[in-house]
């Protein structure tokens, strides 16, 4: 079945960072977006009321089934075309505030899809879930000098993201796992080429891209352009790494 010209995209975790950048580019392309936020004021400060008619903001937690169910339904009674999840934990020293945030979010999204279909609401969305480089089961996918950094500071959230990756890749849903190298602040820079690595979750790397950093703005822009707006079939049901 062909995807409609105007898509409806559900965003989880789009109030900052990669998710916010992807949301901005998706809205700019004229698509409808539904964003779930624990604190809607973060998005209304960026998109004042009435300034963006294609954006619906729903207050709630991505671990709560009821607001997630709302977020996954279009106005005309379908399941949304695309789901973008960029939820993640906040760092607290050597750990994070919620070491299970991603795996719980994945479980809630999949449970919500099952409930919607059981109630007669149809649709097969493409799920895009943001993970991180550094945790491939097949190869070292970060520079050697970064391995101690990932071990010390990213091992806890990384383990959570590995479980999330498995839940989506084994769900039977259409998915892309989006892995970025170390995320930094800064404006989008079209002059810096973005390199892309592709890994099959079952058989391993198809092409490698190992790098140190990428800005949140560029990562979000790439996600929107290549996975949401004009999705490239070669990234379907794959783990995709982006880096400078």
What does this structure look like?
- It comes from Penicillium patulum (Penicillium griseofulvum).
- Residues 13-226 form the NAD(P)-binding domain.
- With 244 residues, the chain is of the alpha/beta class.
- The chain is 32% helix and 25% strand.
- A nine-stranded mixed beta sheet has the order 3-2-1-4-7-8-13-10-11, with helices on both faces. Strands 5-6 form a two-stranded antiparallel ribbon.
- Helix 1 (17-28) packs across helix 6, helix 3 (65-71) crosses helix 4 and helix 4 runs parallel beside helix 5 (147-169).
Summarize the structure.
This protein has six helices and 13 strands.
> How many H/I helices?
6
The CATH topology: Rossmann fold
Largest sheet: 9 strands, mixed
> How would you spell out the order of helices and strands?
EHEHEHEEEHEHEEEEEHE
List keywords for this structure.
244 residues; alpha/beta; Rossmann fold; 9-stranded mixed β-sheet; two-stranded antiparallel sheet; 13 strands; 25% strand
Topology summary:
Elements: E1 8-12, H1 17-28, E2 32-37, H2 41-44, E3 55-59, H3 65-71, E4 82-85, E5 91-92, E6 95-96, H4 101-118, E7 126-132, H5 147-169, E8 174-180, E9 182-184, E10 195-200, E11 204-207, E12 213-215, H6 216-229, E13 238-243
Helix pairs in contact: 1-6, 3-4, 4-5
InterPro entries: NAD(P)-bd_dom, NAD(P)-bd_dom_sf, Polyketide_Oxido-like
Family: Belongs to the avfA family.
GO molecular function, one term: biliverdin reductase [NAD(P)H] activity
């Amino acid at each position: 079945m062909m995807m409609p010209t105007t898509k409806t995209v559900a965003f989880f975790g789009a109030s900052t960072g990669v998710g916010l950048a992807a949301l901005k580019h998706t809205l700019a392309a004229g698509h409808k977006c539904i964003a779930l936020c624990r604190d809607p004021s973060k998005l209304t400060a960026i998109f004042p009321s009435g300034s963006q008619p294609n954006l619906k903001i729903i207050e709630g937690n991505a671990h709560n089934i009821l607001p997630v169910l709302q977020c996954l339904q279009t106005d005309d009674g379908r399941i949304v075309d695309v789901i973008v999840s960029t939820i993640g934990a906040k760092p607290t020293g050597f750990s994070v505030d919620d070491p299970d945030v991603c795996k719980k979010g994945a479980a809630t999204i999949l449970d919500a899809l099952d409930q919607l279909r059981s109630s007669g609401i149809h649709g097969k969305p493409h799920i895009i879930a943001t993970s991180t480089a550094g945790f491939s089961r097949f190869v070292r996918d970060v520079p050697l000098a970064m391995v101690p950094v990932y071990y010390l500071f990213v091992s806890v959230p990384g383990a959570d993201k590995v479980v999330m990756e498995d839940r989506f890749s084994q769900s039977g849903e259409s998915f892309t796992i989006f892995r970025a190298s170390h995320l930094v602040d800064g404006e989008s820079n079209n002059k810096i080429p973005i390199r892309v690595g592709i890994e099959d979750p079952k058989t391993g790397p198809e092409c490698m891209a190992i790098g140190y950093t990428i800005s949140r703005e560029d990562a979000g822009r790439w996600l929107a352009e290549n996975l949401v707006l004009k999705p490239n079939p070669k990234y379907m049901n794959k783990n995709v790494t982006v880096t400078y």
